[in-house]
Amino acid sequence: MIIFENVSKRFPNGHVGLENINLHMARGEMAFLTGHSGAGKSTLLKLIMLMDRPSNGQVQVGGYRLSQLRRGQIPALRRNIGVVFQDHQLLFDRSVFDNVAIPLMVAGFDFDDIGRRVRAALDMVGLLDREKLNPLSLSGGERQRVGIARALVNRPAVLLADEPTGNLDPDLSADIMKRFEHFNQAGVTVLIATHDLDLVQRMGHRTIRLERGRLVTAGATTGEAVE
Ligand SMILES: Nc1ncnc2c1ncn2[C@@H]1O[C@H](COP(=O)(O)OP(=O)(O)OP(=O)(O)O)[C@@H](O)[C@H]1O
């Protein structure tokens, strides 16, 4: 589902963010991406979601070589990748409903369809009764769940999360991770960048570890060679 072949990322200032990464995540897999601050976790996620391009090597997602995508194919790829950020990036001048609806509005869904899909996504994260509220009136954990609903509303095949539990207490972090596990069981490929090694160990999924831009452990993937 996600393949990195000899991928390096050198920034314009000369800093090497990623060096010769070879990685294979199978469809339907769940993995954690770990490493110290500055190890390259966000850089790796940005290459998958096409927010940035590698300097060398190839990234493939869902069978597409990202370097060969035509401009017109990029929105379809992005719709297939849901992204959850640590600071959830919600709009505080819109309701919870509108925040979750944004990807569908951008994609041009009709009004009724948007209503159905937004409510289904809010239901999945247990926030159906909060749709009219402003995110400002929600707790940190609830805001994060709104961010997850927004990431899932397009029913993407891949869910990426960058430090999704960074500001949450251990119970809420465990709750959010359980939800990711649940989506994974429904077939979504899930990759989560996190510093929370206790949680990673407790959950027992594959761990992909970066150190100064290099892959030091890629863990195991079902039936396929890695690294
Ligand atoms: N646009 C950029 N220009 C120059 N250097 C950059 C750029 N983006 C990231 N870097 C550097 O690349 C390295 C990897 O950054 P990245 O954000 O991927 O790390 P990270 O593992 O996600 O860290 P954290 O856990 O702190 O979020 C860091 O040293 C960072 O300063």
Automatic annotation (TrEMBL):
A Pfam family this chain is assigned to: ABC_tran
GO biological process entries: cell division
PROSITE patterns membership: ABC_TRANSPORTER_1, ABC_TRANSPORTER_2
Keywords in alphabetical order: ATP-binding, Cell cycle, Cell division, Cell membrane, Membrane, Nucleotide-binding
Top-level taxon of the source organism: Bacteria
MF terms in GO: ATP binding; ATP hydrolysis activity; transmembrane transporter activity
Signal peptide: none
Membrane topology label: Peripheral membrane protein
Record flagged with keyword tRNA processing: no
SMART domains: AAA
GO CC list: plasma membrane
Predominant location category: membrane
Ranges where the ABC transporter domain occurs: 2-225
UniProt-annotated location(s): Cell inner membrane; Cell membrane
Gene3D superfamilies per the UniProt record, alphabetical: P-loop containing nucleotide triphosphate hydrolases
Biological role: Part of the ABC transporter FtsEX involved in cellular division. Important for assembly or stability of the septal ring.
Family: Belongs to the ABC transporter superfamily.
Known partners and oligomeric status: Homodimer. Forms a membrane-associated complex with FtsX.
Protein name per Swiss-Prot or TrEMBL: Cell division ATP-binding protein FtsE
Lineage: Bacteria, Pseudomonadati, Pseudomonadota, Gammaproteobacteria, Oceanospirillales
The gene coding this protein: ftsE
